[in-house]
Amino acid sequence: MRRYLIAYTFLTPALALLMVFTFYPIVMGLVMMFYDYTFLEPMRFVGLGNFERAFHDPDFLISLLHSIQYVIVVPPIQILSILVAILVNRRLFGISFFRTTYYVPVVTSMVAVAITWKWLYDSHGLLNYILQALHLVDKPVYWLTSKELAMPSVMMVTLWKGIGWYMLIYLAGLQSVPAELEEAAAIDGASRWQVFSKVTVPLLRPYVLFCTFMSILGALQVFEEIYVMTGGGPMKATLTVSVYQFYKAFGDYDFGYAAAVGMVVALLVAIFNLGMFRTLAKGGLRYY
Amino acid sequence: MLVACAVLLALTGPLSEAKTTTLEFWTISLRPMFDDYINGLIREYEKANPGIRIEWKDFPITVITQKLTAAIAGGVAPDVVNLNTGMALSLAERRALVNIGKEFPQYQDTYFEGLWNSARLNDGVYAFPWYVVTHVVIYNKDIFARAGLDPNKPPSTWEEVEAYARQIKAKTGLYGWMPFINFVTDLIEMRVALTDETRKRATFNTPEAVARLQWYRTLMEDDIIPRESLQAGYAGALDRYMAGKVGMIVTGPQFLSRVKANAPDIYKVTGVGPYPMFKGGAIAAPLMNLTIPGASKNWAEAAKFAAYVTGDEAQLAFCKIVTILPSTKKAAADPFFTQTDDTVESVARMYAARQMQYAVEGDLTLPHSADLAGKLGAAVEAVVYGEKGAKEALDQAAAEWNKILAKER
Predict the structure, then answer these.
(1) Which of B220, B364, B371, B381 is the best residue to mutate to test the A interface, defined by the most A CB atoms within 10 Å of its own CB?
(2) Sorting pLDDT into bands at 50, 70 and 90, what band is A285?
(3) What is the value of pTM for the model shown?
(4) Are B241 and B138 in contact (CB under 8 A)?
(5) Do B385 and A230 touch (CB under 8 A)?
(6) Closest residue in chain A to residue B67, using alpha carbons only
(7) With contact defined as beta carbons under 8 Å apart, do B293 and B81 qualify?
């Protein structure tokens, strides 16, 4: 009993903060999505009206499509950070320099990263300067102002910023793989690729599961890089659900509708991750 | 006896002190450049009004309405808030602001009638007009000279703006002009009626509007204006100007103080010219206001403070440190606005003041303004980036406006 008392005493401050800043907003969000609510006028119950409206709202449907595109593209490419982790897992002179370098974007604020990349992507920015100087293109590439390139350009920034974080998780995973298993496979005549694909990668499965889960969550909630670099444009080409939700809530004061849109995102996260758990949560070292 | 007196004083002392009322005062992007001015105003006001304490907070324009709605919802509403007319009307529509016209009509005569009426919605007036500016051309004389243009002759018409921009691009490779494309403003200045008299039907899809939109598209296609013009806003254009990467911008003269502080080398070669007006003879004059949220608990004290900040003396003093114009009749009559010295600020102020006779409100003053602006903005974007024809896009935007305007508010 005393042990529980001590444990809960330690937990109380964190729980109190969670109550105020997490659970209360969640409950309020759940209530709000059934109301027409602008913060400034009295709430009006509309039942499922906000959801019905969402699925007849072309802007929401476009933003939903873009968010799904984000999930289809970004998390699978993010898995390549395993390769970076393998590269920095070697015992080479100065390797910690590279580990740190790859990790620097992770600790940099997304707003700062987005502003920097906005400059790099500018039609007269550094990236275009280099491409033109090397005669790879004869006129500037419109990274953020063309409908076709804006989304891949923003995705690139998300990947660039995230790769160090996932690298670190995979690095921890690689260092927890028992060396004797890999050595045994090598003694049995397995090639380096076979050791990697048949021994190392399966043992990394829990890490892949965790990273993919986080990456899907991040991709569906992507906000800062889009808000800062394109604002959802050009011509809504980068409008994702989170950005749309923000505009509805803080641009149009349409908080009830924004809450309903948020719920659709939450359901999407649940569906994607359920599918992923079913696919990946087999075999490997079980830490879950 | 002495002890008894001391006890009595100690007991009665705090009770005899007047209760202090704290007014929260929010402004837009005045920190840190105008710290001394605002703090000075506050000090003077607190000295003259014992029992009132002013707590000043400053926010960027991009977040102030979000902060304000959150504060109102959280029950900690500020008392006096600086908003532009569009923001003020948007909140007034939702009954979030005090109807100053009804509650405090005694202040009305201080201000120019047109400016007092800017924040009018139905029968109410929801803001104290504060400072106002009309735009001017700010240009880089050095780039003009390099392009073979006369550094002392800024463009005076839109045709000249285009011709100069083309010449600068051809001769220097730099952009000659970076616009901040606000098509609502363009339409207002061209005297294209946005709606009919019922305010329920859009009427902006006229041949003049189509031609203007097509003009932007041609400039973008010919790479005469940067692709980022639509998204960068005033701040983006100013950044490029301060980096010496653009020949001219059309903006408020108050930004000259930023050029002076952040890019002194560019400031040295900066010239100003009058705003290149349309034939309609109107200039959109962005107006800053002070509003009182309905959720404030101190309406009367807030109104008194807002009237003080927007009063003759305070506005004249403000105009002397930054190139803006006052909204009060008495301050505007000061000879300060007609005299110039050698500084570009004084020339800009002279142009801005001279142009005030053409000033009109440049914000959308219709219900559902955010929605309407969004639809028109999407049409402009589609045309400028070559997705749609100007006529088709404006017709479509007008149809969307009709649907939105039909809604009750």
Answers:
(1) B381
(2) very low
(3) 0.81
(4) yes
(5) no
(6) A250
(7) yes
